[in-house]
Specification:
By secondary structure, the chain is α+β, with helices and mostly antiparallel strands. The chain contains three helices and ten strands; from the N terminus they run H-H-H-E-E-E-E-E-E-E-E-E-E. Strands 1, 2, 3, 6, 7, 8, 9 and 10 form an eight-stranded mixed sheet that branches. Strand 7 and strand 8 form a beta hairpin. The longest helix has 21 residues. The termini are far apart.
């Protein structure tokens, strides 16, 4: 599972960086006509398109299989005797700090697959968005149940935060000493900075 999470983090990074690069275009688009900003609908549709395109690209780069699913995307992993379907889906963070995931009662996420030699698990690859149309959080969690009737609120298992190296693409860390920060005592301590 550890190696699988590492691959998912590659996908998450592509999603995050893509929205950072192009999220502003959502704001530009909805300002083209007053009708586009009367509700969140147009902006949400554009945000979803950006995220799904980035998820497809990230999954492809990571060598993962994916397929269209109910207007969204399932990223598929195969680990031993378990196949996992990660549905890319917008989630909400409540005031209590819990993730809320809603779907329609006809969603394929609610369909129980018949038993087979390979176990199938349904997961969420969830994202929250900021007001500037960029990613705030990316998580993965197994769907362990649901409650309600149209709309249905999914019950999630343990939350895996898909944080990744925040360094930008092409960034290379070096161990070279910077001027003014040399070790004066040779014991790894930075010299007295009281003069700053």
């Amino acid at each position: 599972m550890e190696s699988e999470i590492a691959v998912l983090r590659q996908v998450a990074r592509e999603i995050r960086e893509s929205t950072e690069e192009s999220g502003y275009k959502v704001g530009v688009a909805v300002r083209q006509h007053g009708a586009f900003s009367q509700t969140r609908g147009p902006a949400s549709a554009l945000e979803r398109s950006l995220v799904l395109e980035a998820a497809r690209r990230g999954a492809s780069q990571a060598g993962l299989t994916f397929e269209a699913a109910s207007g969204s995307l399932d990223i598929i992993t195969n680990c031993g005797d378990t196949i996992r379907y990660y549905r890319v889906k917008h989630v909400k963070l409540t005031a209590a700090g819990e993730y809320k995931v809603i779907c329609g009662e006809g969603s394929s996420l609610l369909v129980t697959e018949p038993e087979s030699l390979l176990r199938e698990e349904k997961w969420i690859l969830g994202y929250t968005l900021s007001d500037d149309h960029t990613i705030e959080r990316l998580i993965a969690a197994e769907i362990v149940g649901w409650r309600g009737e149209g709309p249905v609120c999914l019950t999630l298992g343990s939350i895996i935060v898909l944080t990744d190296d925040p360094s930008p693409r092409g960034f290379t860390s070096t161990d070279e000493d910077l001027p003014g920060f040399e070790d004066e005592d040779g014991d790894g301590e930075i010299g007295d900075a009281s003069g700053f």
